[in-house]
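This entry is passed on directly below:
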Amino acid sequence: MKLHNLISVKTTKKAKRVGRGLASGKGENAGRGTKGQKSRSGYNIPRSFEGGQTPLIQRLAKARGFKSIHAKPEIVHIKDIEKNFKDGEVVNFKSLLEKKMVHSVKSGIKVVGPGELTKNLRFLDVRLTKKLLEQSIKNKEKPTEVAPEKIVQKPKAKATPVKLAPKEKKV
């Protein structure tokens, strides 16, 4: 006998064979009791099952609303920009952070109303609403400049499949 052949005393006890007659000690109903779902073969009930009653998880109040996984841009009002920026200045991440108008620029910045754009400002890497974009176009030729990596191109329209004539077989 070698060390790797030794067997634990705990695991040497064999499981009782059930359903092998009355004298075996686990005969007739094989320790499952009489009738019912639990006595049948293939019995498996999930822990959350409550006997047909509406489960607790379904009886609890549902959380309302929806929280998007997409990060929302930091919003800056045009009236605040009008107060803090002079005519001809550049409005970008850095200048807005210096003037403490935004906290972080992780998800971008969007300039919104209410108010009108009266000053001639240059917007870099900042999104504008349609109305403000039109106003900035009126003030000068170049309304916004966006860094090349920030430009999002729209996907091209899918081409419609063209049926080709069947190829002729060589003889």
User: Anything to note?
Assistant: The mean pLDDT is 80. Residues 74-149 form a domain with the Ribosomal Protein L15; Chain: K; domain 2 fold (CATH 3.100.10.10). Residues 117 and 135 are 6 Å apart (CA to CA).
